[in-house]
Amino acid sequence: MRAWLPTALRGLLLLALLAFLVSPESFEPLLKPLVQQDAPAIYNHGSLLSLTLQHLRTVFIATAAATIIAIGLAILVTRPIGAEFLPLSRSLVNIGQTFPPVAVLALAVPAVGFGEKPTLIALFLYGLLPIFENTLTALTNLPRSVMEAARGAGMTGFQRLFQVELPLSLPVIVAGIRLSVVINLSTATIGSTVAAKTLGEVIIAGLQSNNLAFILQGGLIVGALAILIYDSLSGVEKLLTRRVGRR
Amino acid sequence: MIEIDAITKTYDEIAVVDDVSMVIEPRTITVVVGTSGSGKTTLLRMINRLVEPTSGEIRLDGDDNRSMPAHELRRRIGYAIQGHGLFPHRTVAQNIATVPRLLGWEKPRMDAKVAELLTLFQLEPEIFGPRYPHQLSGGQQQRVGVARALAAEPNVLLMDEPFGALDPIIRAKAQDDLLAIQKHFGTTIVLVTHDMNEAFHLANKIAVMDKGKVVQYGPPVELVRAPTTDFVKTLIGDAERPFRLLSVANAAAAVEPGEAEGEPIQEDRSQQDALAALLWSGRDALPVVSVGGKPIGRIKLSTLLKRAARLQ
């Protein structure tokens, strides 16, 4: 395959997505065959564009919080002071991943009410594990001779962390963030069961009124977002890998 | 001067370094040799406190090395290791400037130092300064590693098998470079190796370690002539002894007046090199010239044979 082809395909996907979000009506003929005679082919209870932006916002806030906590925790447990918290933090983060997001929603709603908040909690917990595990792996597998040289040169603990350990770990940490974002992009749709404004609203509306076109457009937008974000973060990762000189 | 005073390090009640005392003279190269597990690396790492001793004291120019925070101590002591340990995300110039930057040097002073060291190690500053470590060959990476260790002009340079990962040809070159650099800066060097040839090539004094103890510490000649234990004898190698004796003496020391035919040898080469030249060319004597190229006499094969014998 030619080198430019994947980039060209991604460009096309991005264009198609933007076109659909800005002017969904122009795609009506394409989706019309999927619905019964009088049913609407394009989601009509709100703007798809604003739903998409709100969806992204929810995912972004949840993943950002998960990133800060997961990296912080991984740094803590790889320092001598925090080493004994390693098993504890591992199990906490694992629980976050094993506990189904739907169950988190069900438990969170009585506590914080309907809307975006319970969704943020569920996504935050769900996103911790990949970032935590990746950061931990990166920080514990740094080249020994490099760490030895950093100590031997007289760097303090802080200087080693910020000048050597984190810069060298960055590509692997970004890979963790990428996994989290993609998982959360799809998981966020269930937030709409508790009245969060996400693209799940479109899918749920489609399921309730047996409207295949709704389900499809909700699903496709989420899918396209996931592919595009996954790819761009992969690009960032490659760039960082090259910058830390491993390749 | 480095005074190691009754230093002991135990891990789980096992003494890795066991009551070692030795004095390392300033501006000399001391090589610590021993088998793996003999405690030589641990001893070295206690000098810059990468390992804290269980008991005993190490004094640098009279001051206990625990009289300042460990990281400040390490900035004053050069440290070069096997596999160089260069920071892969920093350029060669940034790598070399590591310690000066930690010490807060001004940028012009730092840049000048980097350029000076790169030139000294025969690496063109404009070409190699901006490169990343992975763009260099093994020998170049190793040179940058030593340059980094020397950047803050330390009085003491600790080297842990610095040439272990190099091929024989580059290693010989690196050793000669090290000798030249030691002369240039007058640095006190403590080097750990398990390569006896390297030890004899570089050392003013050799310390032999076995099971955590220093079993012999003295000039190379002394180790050959009067090994204190069988371990030292084995380490030097029975068959190697006459050649080791010749290898640590300059050709100049065996010169006598007179003339000889054929290819001359420079006075600063070892007597072992002179012997090799004689044997290979089948001559009885060879002319010796000064470093400047002036004839200063000759070396006879019979002289060298006498010098290689146990008693002189």
Distinctive features:
heterodimer, A: 247 residues, mainly alpha, MetI-like fold, 10 helices, 75% helix, flat, B: 312 residues, alpha/beta, six-stranded mixed sheet, four-stranded antiparallel sheet, 14 helices, 13 strands, 38% helix
Question: Quick gist of this model?
Answer:
Helix content of chain A is 75%, strand content 0%. Chain A is built from ten helices and no strands. The longest helix of chain A has 32 residues, at 212-243.
What would you note in describing this structure?
The complex is a heterodimer of chains A (247) and B (312). With 247 residues, chain A is mainly alpha-helical. Chain A is flat and about 75 Å long. Chain A is 75% helix and 0% strand. Chain A has a single domain (45-140, 167-246), classed as MetI-like fold. With 312 residues, chain B is an alpha/beta fold. In chain B, strand 4 and strand 5 form a beta hairpin. In chain B, helix 12 (241-247) crosses helix 13. Chain B is globular and about 60 Å long. The mean pLDDT of chain B is 91. Classes of the chains: A mainly alpha (247), B alpha/beta (312). At the A-B interface, helix 7 and helix 8 of A face helix 2 and helix 4 of B.
Order of helices and strands of chain A: HHHHHHHHHH
Structural class of chain A: mainly alpha
The CATH homologous superfamily of chain A is termed MetI-like
Biggest β-sheet description of chain A:
none
* Tally of separate helices of chain B: 14
Quick one: how many beta strands of chain B? 13
Write out the strand line-up for the largest beta sheet of chain B, numbering strands in chain order.
6-7-8-3-9-10
Percent of residues in helices of chain B: 25-40%
What is the CATH class of chain A? Mainly Alpha
Mean pLDDT of chain B comes to 91
What are the segments of chain B in which pLDDT stays under 50 over at least 5 consecutive residues?
none
For the CA atoms, what is the radius of gyration of chain B? 21 Å
